[in-house]
C-alpha cells in the first residue's frame, strides 16, 4: 500500500481520507467493515457517537450561505441540513455499506420500506414474483390500488416484457432454498425487464446478486445486517451501471418525500453491527449446514428420535440438483444461509415443539445472534401448520443438537 501514502513537507507519512479510500478496496471484508468510516467523524473517537439532532445550523456568515447546501468546514465528510435528507449516523452507516457492497447503497426504515421504494422507482405494469415473504406481497397489494400493477408468478415469466419487474427472493422464506439468479437474469435481459432480488436470507459474505447482474438488491437489514434483534432497517443496493444512470440519486429523492428514512439510533446500531457481519454470518452459515445435515440423517432413519417427529427438512444445502449443476456453489460461495425449515409429522407437535426448547427462542423474525424457531402458523393463516422455521444464531452446534434432541424426546414422551 506504499503507493497510496501521503507525506508531509518533511517527508513523513500521514494517513488521509483520500489515501485510506484508495487502500480500502485492497483490504478484506472484515477489515473494511471496521475501517471504512474512519474519517467520517470530525472528532477522534474510535466508536461512533449517536447524533439524535433533526436539524443543523446554517453558516452564521451570510456570505457563506449556499442554497440547498450546508457544508461544515469542521465536518467535511459529515455535513447535514435536515435529518429527513441525511443524518450523521445513517450517512456513516451507508458509507460502510457502500464499501462492503462495492456500489451505492440507500438505507430505509425497514425492509418493506426498501421494497416499496424499489417498486415506486421502477413503477412496473407487471411484477413477476416468488412466493416468499408475505409482507412484500402486502406492499404490492397497496401499490396496486394506486398504479394498477399486476402480480404474476415465476411460472408466468414467458409473458414477461420490457419494463416489467422480475423479483426473486433467494434464499426463500421460510424454506431457506435458493433460486438460480443467473437464469433469471438471462430471462430478464432477453426481454428488457428489470431483475430485483431480496437477498435478506443471503447476506454478504454468502452471496452477491449484484455480481450476478441484478439491477437492484434489497435486504431487510433488521435481520443479519442488524444481527442483534434490536433495530429495524432496510437497504437497497444499486448496480454500478444503474448508479451511472442516476438510480441512487432518484431513490434518495423518493425517500426524502416518502419519509422512509431510518432513525438516528438505528443508524448507530447498524454501524456497530456491520463491524461483525462477516464473523457472525460465516459462523451462522457453517453451523446451519452442519445442523441441517444432522437433522436430514435423522429424518432418513424413521426409527430415530428425529425421524419419529420430523418428516422433512429444507435448506439450500439439500438441493442436490442445484449442487450437481454447480450454479448454487457459484451463487453462494460463502455458504448456504442460516435459515431452514422442517416439517413435523403432527400439527400438535409443531404447535408445542418450541415450548420444549432451552437454546432456541420462540419468536418472529430472524438473523440475530440468538437462535430462534417459529411455528410459522403464528405469522400467517396461510402457512402450513406443520412447518417450523429455524434461524440459527451463534451458539455452539452441539448445544443446538442437544436442545433439539431433548425437545423431540419431550414431544414423544407426552404422547405416551
UniProtKB/TrEMBL annotation:
Listed InterPro entries: Cys/Met-Metab_PyrdxlP-dep_enz, Cys_met_metab_PP, PyrdxlP-dep_Trfase, PyrdxlP-dep_Trfase_major, PyrdxlP-dep_Trfase_small
Obligatory cofactor(s): pyridoxal 5'-phosphate
GO cellular-component term (any): cytoplasm
Keywords assigned by UniProt, alphabetized: Pyridoxal phosphate
Any GO molecular function: carbon-sulfur lyase activity
Positions of post-translational N6-(pyridoxal phosphate)lysine modification: 223
Listed GO biological process terms: transsulfuration
Transmembrane helix in keyword set: no
Family: Belongs to the trans-sulfuration enzymes family.
Protein name according to UniProt: Cystathionine beta-lyase
Amino acid at each position: 500500500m506504499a503507493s497510496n501514502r501521503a507525506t508531509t513537507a518533511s517527508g513523513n507519512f500521514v494517513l488521509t481520507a483520500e489515501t485510506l479510500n484508495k487502500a480500502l478496496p485492497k483490504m478484506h471484508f472484515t477489515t473494511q467493515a471496521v475501517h471504512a468510516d474512519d474519517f467520517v467523524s470530525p472528532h477522534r473517537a474510535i466508536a461512533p457517537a449517536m447524533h439524535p439532532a433533526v436539524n443543523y445550523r446554517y453558516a452564521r456568515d451570510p456570505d457563506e450561505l449556499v442554497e440547498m447546501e450546508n457544508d461544515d468546514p469542521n465536518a467535511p465528510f459529515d455535513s447535514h441540513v435536515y435529518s429527513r435528507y441525511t443524518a450523521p449516523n445513517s450517512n456513516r452507516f451507508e458509507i460502510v455499506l457502500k464499501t462492503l457492497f462495492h456500489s451505492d447503497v440507500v438505507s430505509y426504515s425497514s425492509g418493506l420500506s426498501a421494497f416499496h421504494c424499489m417498486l415506486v422507482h421502477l413503477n412496473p405494469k407487471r411484477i413477476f414474483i416468488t412466493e416468499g415473504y408475505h409482507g412484500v406481497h402486502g406492499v404490492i397489494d397497496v401499490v396496486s390500488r394506486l398504479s394498477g400493477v399486476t402480480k404474476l408468478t415465476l411460472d408466468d415469466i414467458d409473458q414477461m416484457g420490457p419494463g416489467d419487474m422480475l423479483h426473486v427472493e433467494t434464499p426463500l422464506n421460510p424454506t431457506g432454498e435458493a433460486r438460480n439468479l443467473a437464469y433469471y437474469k438471462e430471462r430478464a435481459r432477453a426481454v428488457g425487464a428489470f431483475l430485483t432480488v431480496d437477498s435478506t436470507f443471503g447476506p454478504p459474505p454468502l452471496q452477491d446478486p449484484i455480481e450476478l447482474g441484478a439491477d437492484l438488491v434489497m435486504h431487510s437489514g433488521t435481520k443479519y445486517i442488524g444481527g442483534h434483534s434490536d433495530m429495524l432497517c432496510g437497504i437497497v443496493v444499486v448496480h454500478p451501471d444503474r448508479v451511472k444512470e442516476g438510480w441512487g440519486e432518484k431513490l434518495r429523492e423518493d425517500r426524502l418525500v416518502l419519509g422512509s428514512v431510518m432513525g438516528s439510533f438505528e443508524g448507530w446500531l447498524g454501524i456497530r453491527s456491520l463491524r461483525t457481519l462477516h464473523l457472525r454470518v460465516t459462523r451462522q452459515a457453517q453451523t446451519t449446514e452442519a445442523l441441517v445435515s444432522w437433522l436430514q440423517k435423522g429424518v432418513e432413519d424413521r426409527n430415530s428420535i428425529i425421524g419419529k417427529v420430523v418428516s422433512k427438512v429444507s435448506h439450500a444445502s439439500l438441493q442436490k440438483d442445484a449442487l450437481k449443476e454447480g450454479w448454487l456453489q457459484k451463487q453462494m460461495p460463502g455458504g448456504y444461509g442460516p435459515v431452514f425449515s422442517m416439517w413435523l409429522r403432527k400439527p400438535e407437535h409443531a404447535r408445542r415443539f418450541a415450548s420444549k426448547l432451552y437454546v432456541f427462542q420462540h419468536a418472529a423474525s430472524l438473523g440475530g445472534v440468538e437462535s430462534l424457531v417459529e411455528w410459522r402458523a403464528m405469522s400467517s393463516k396461510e402457512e402450513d401448520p406443520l412447518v417450523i422455521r429455524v434461524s440459527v444464531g451463534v451458539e455452539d452446534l452441539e448445544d443446538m443438537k442437544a436442545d433439539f434432541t431433548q425437545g423431540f424426546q419431550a414431544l414423544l414422551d407426552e404422547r405416551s
